[in-house]
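Mitochondrial import inner membrane translocase subunit TIM50
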Amino acid sequence: MLGRALLPLTRPRTLTPAIRIALSTAQKRSYARERKPKIKSEQKLTASTPGSQWQTQPSATTSAPAQNIPPSNKYTDSQPEFDTSEKSSEDVTRPAEEPSLENGGQRKDQTSNITPEADAFEEELSNGNRDPQQPLPDLTKGIPSTLDAELKRAHLRGDEPPASLNITEDTAEPIPSSGGGGGARGGDGLPKNAYISSNERKKNALIKYTYLVVAGAFVGWTLYLGRNWESEEEEKKHTDAPSGWGLGLFYNRARARLGATLSYYNEPAFPKLLPDEEADPNLRAPFTLVLSLEDLLVHQEWTRESGWRIAKRPGVDYFIRYLSQYYELVLFTSQPSFIGDSVLRKLDPYHIIRWPLFREATLYKKGEYIKDLSYLNRDLSKVIMIDTVPSHAKHQPENAIILPKWTGNPNDQTLVQLIPFLEYVATMGFDDTRKVLKSFEGTYIPAEFAKREKLLREKFEARLAEERKKKPKRSVGGIASVFGVKGQPAPDGIDASALAEGEMLWDQIRKRGQKQYELIDKQIREEGQKWLDDEAAAEKKLQEESISSMKGSFLGFFGAGGVSGEKK
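Structure:
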C-alpha cells in the first residue's frame, strides 16, 4: 500500500496534466468501450492553447510504450453513476524521461496515451450527441455551456438555418425563421399564442375590458353633456346652442357645458378681485396702478455657486412709497401665491402695496397667463398697468405700459425716471388715462415725457417773460393754460405768486409730493419696527388659536371636549 501511494511521486510530471480530467472515473471508460470499442490503441491528446478543446491525433513515436489499461467492471443499473467505492485505475501512460539538455539534445513534449474508449467519449461530447443517461461532466472546473451543442444539433437536424444569434436584439437584423413549420415559434409547429401564459392572457383580457369601460363611460358622459337645457335661463345664456334634436345642436350643448366646467380652472378665482370702492372719495386714491413682480420690481436667477437669488430693483422703495399718495397700488403677478407672497414680504414688509394678486387671479388661455383688468372691479379709465410681458396685457393693451425686462443691472434708473409721468397723469385731472397712454404709444415713456416737459418749460418761460414786459394782471388760470388745462380749476395747494416768480405748476406739485414722501419715510423709520412686531404677535396669536381649535375638535371626536373645556 505504501509503495502504491509513493509510486506517483516517483514518476516524472507530464507536460499536459489536463488529460486526467476526462478520465477520472471507471464509469466513463466503460461507457466509452460500449459506445466505440474499436479504435486504434495509440492516440495522443494535443492542445494548441490552454483551455481549448482536445483533439485526437495519431501519436508519434515515444520513448516509452503505451501501457495497457486494466479492465474494469461493466456499468449496470444497480450501480450509481458516481460510485465512490470503485477506485479508478491508472489510465494514462507516463512519458519517458526527458533527454538531458546537457547532452545537446532538444526537449520534446512527451505526452501519455489515452484509451480508445476515453477518446470516443471525448469525441462524442464534442459532437453534442451526449446521452441523457450518461454521467454528468466534472463541474469542479466550471459549468460548461450547452448553447453551441444545441445549435449544432439543430443545424444537423435541419430545424433552422445556421445563423448568428441576434444577441443585441437589434430590430434591423433579421431573425432566422423557423424551418419546422409555418408560424411556429421554435420549429415545433405550435402557434405563437401557445407560448402565452395564463397570467398574461388574463392581463390582456383585463386591459381590453378596461378600454371598453372607459370608451362606454366617455360616450355616456358626452350624451349627458349634450342633453337639452333644463331651464330657460340656461338656454338664454347659450343662444348659440338652443335646445332641440340634431347632431350640431347636440355638439354645441356638449361643448358649452364642457367649457363651463373647464372655466372653473382657467378663469380667476373670483369675479371681483378687489373689494368695492369706498363711498367717500377722500378715503381712496382716484387712480389704480397695477404692477408686475417678476423682472419689474425684482429679478431672480439661479447659479450653480449660490442657487436661487432675488435682487431688488434700484429705486423700488422710493417708487412705491412716493406713488402711494396718488395711486391705489396693486401687485399682480403670474407667480403662485406661495412663491409671490414670500417675495412680497421681503420687498414690502410695511404693506405699502395695498392689494396682492397672484396666479390664482389670472386668466389661463391657450397656454398663457393673462392679467384681465376687467376682473379688478375698478373703472378701467382710471387704471394703469405696468408689465414686462405683452401677453399679460392682451385683453387691455390700451391700459398697459410695457417696459423692458430688468436683468439685474445695479445702475438701472427706469422706475425713478417713470415717476414724473405717473405723477403728471394722477395730478393733472385727466378723465381717461388710456388717452394719455395712447399719445405715448410706440415711445419710451420716461425719455419722451422728459422731452415734452422740456418744451413746456421753454414755452412757460417765454410766455412769462412776455407777461412781465406787459405787466398784466397775473392769474393762475392764465398761467395754467400753458399746461393744457385751461378752463379747469387749479389743483389744491397751488401758489399763484410762485407761478409769477417762474415756478411752474408742475414744480409745485412735485414739491408737495416730495414733502409727503418725506413724512411717509420718517414714519416708517420711527414706527416701522413696531409695526412688524405687532404683526408678528398677531400672527402668532392666530396660529395658537388655530392649534387650540384643532385640538378641541380632535378631543371632541373622542368625547373629551367637555373635560378640556372645564380645565380651561
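The mean pLDDT is 74.
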